[in-house]
Structure formats: structure tokens, C-alpha cells
Amino acid sequence: MMTLSGKARLAGVLGWPVSHSLSPRLHGFWLDRHGIDGAYVPLPVRPEDFLEVVRALPKAGFRGANVTVPHKEAAFALCRDHGRLSERARRVGSVNTLVFAEDGTIEGDTTDGYGFLENLRQEAPDDRWTRGRAVVLGAGGAARSVIAALLDLPGLDELVLANRTVERAEAVARDLADARIRVCALDGAQIETEKCALLVNTTAVGLKGEQALPVALDSLDPGALVTDIVYHPLITPFLAAAQTRGNAIVDGLGMLLHQARPGFAAWFGTDPQVDAALRAHVLAHAT
Ligand code: ATR
Fold first, then answer.
1. pLDDT tens string 177-214
2. How many angstroms separate the alpha carbon of residue 29 from the centre of ligand 1?
3. Which atom of ligand 1 approaches the CA of 143 most closely?
4. In what order do the strands lie in the sheet with 225-228?
5. Of all atoms in ligand 1, which is nearest to the CA of residue 203?
6. In whole numbers, what is the pLDDT of the chain averaged over residues?
7. Degrees (nearest 5) of the Cα angle 245, 251, 254?
8. How far apart are CA 259 and CA 122, in angstroms?
9. Which residue, 204, 213, 4, 30, is CA-closest to 22?
10. pTM, whole model, 2 decimals?
């Protein structure tokens, strides 16, 4: 790490807990690579202290911060009521990137959906997955970002949103208000995968080392690209099963790496690249 000067640019990640976050390692790699006089630090902040801390950060010279669990909705509300929101943050209802403008305005953006698409664009340059039908499993906060990003693809004709709790999927469809979204129950998703170009898992199924899959893959279109937003393990049981069937797969680590780019560019003035060296650096320390 390079020595900081008195003019060092400052940013960090607000979370509670934040000790598991890979963001300091990821931004630290880019700061080193570009020889930037700057620092990106973990900021462990309790929910009850979030507003106070965010409002103080610009006064301490910070240029901005990432926001992670459990603060994304609070960051959204803060920017809505006292700052500015990007169009996509407004649509998704959450904020993961804060930029403090010169005049002190707090600008909120959400880059998770952007990171999701950039990862697929980089790892699956054959763009067949951008057309036709996409099937998204899960309707949590992460799914909202993914779905909003997918709806920006002009070639996407249909987005099937499957969730265990159908009402939750219906709420997402209502909020994102796009005629291409069709909701179904998770156990009705298998038939929808018969003709699909893209299958995305955003559910927590398989996270805790269980081997269960969110949906059976017996009917899966052999040409479908399959991705999971979970990156621990890197190859989830879901991805492994898809790979065994011969489907192309993309793991979820790249989404984390790409979602970090807009913040880094805004705070440190350099648009960083996601490449094999960065992946290896972050992976070596992923716990
Ligand atoms: P996040 O905001 O990080 O996406 P979340 O809001 O907890 O996380 O959402 C988790 C998703 O995983 C939800 O779609 C959830 O389904 P429900 O809305 O029905 O709860 C899904 N999920 C979690 N455990 C599941 C399980 N055992 N079977 C099926 N779906 C599950």
C-alpha cells in the first residue's frame, strides 16, 4: 500500500457487520494498481448511527462510500429526502453507492444491476442471453436490481419471475411496472426454463452448503446461459448442475467486482478494469 499524503482521497464501505466485506480488498487492489493517493476503509456502523455517520462523512473529507447490508434502504431514504437519487436507484428502491458532491449534496446510486449485466457481458460475449425469455428465481432486494437491469435490454421479450412467496414476486412486478414481467411460483418455474435464453438464481437456496437446487433443471433449454448471484462457493450446486448438463455458466463474483467500478471512478477519478488479476486477488481472500 502506498503512503498517503495530506491530500489523500477517502472512501469506504458502510455496513453492520462489515468485517466480511470484500470491498476494501477490491478497491485497495485498484488503488495500488493505479498508484492513487487514496484509501478505502471498512466503516462498521450500527443501524441506529447510520444517518449521523453518513452526514458527517463529507465533513471529514470523504468523497463517498459504498453501502451494504443492512443500510441500503436507509441510504435510499436519506438520498430521497435530503439528497439526490439516480434514476435506477429510484426504480429499485435501494442505494449501494454514495457520492458526496462539492456542495455537500449526497447523491445515491445503485450499481448492483449494472454489475450483474457487465459481468455477463464480459464472461458471455455471445449475446444470445440478451434476447427472448429470461427466468429469474427469487424476489428479494438483489432480485429487484437484477430484474430492473434486465428490463433495460431491448431484446428481452419476457421475464418470468419465480418465487417461493408469490405475493413477494407480485409486489416486485407491480413496483417495476413492465408488461414483460410474468410471475409464477418457484415450483412452477421448471416448465418456463424449457425455452429460455437466461436463467438467474438470486435465491439463498444452496447457500448454507446444502445441495438443493431452487429449480429442477431437467427441462432447461440447452442453449440457456445460467448464472447465480451467490459467489460463495464460487460454483454453487445450481451452477454445477447446469454445467453438468452442458449449459454455459457465469459465476457471481464478477457482479461484485463490476458493481464497484462506478463508485471507484467517481471517488478516485479513474475508471478501473475487472480482469483476471483482480479476480485472483479477491478470490484468494474470499472466506
Ligand atoms: P436479498 O435481499 O439479499 O436478495 P432476501 O430478501 O432474503 O435476500 O431474499 C432471498 C430470496 O431467496 C427470496 O426470494 C426468498 O424467497 P421468499 O421471498 O419466498 O422468502 C428466497 N429463498 C430463501 N430461502 C429459500 C428456500 N429455502 N426456498 C426457496 N426460496 C428461498
1. 999 999 999 999 999 999 999 999 999 997 777 788 99
2. 32
3. 4
4. 181-185, 156-163, 132-137, 198-201, 225-228, 248-250
5. 12
6. 96
7. 155
8. 13
9. 30
10. 0.96
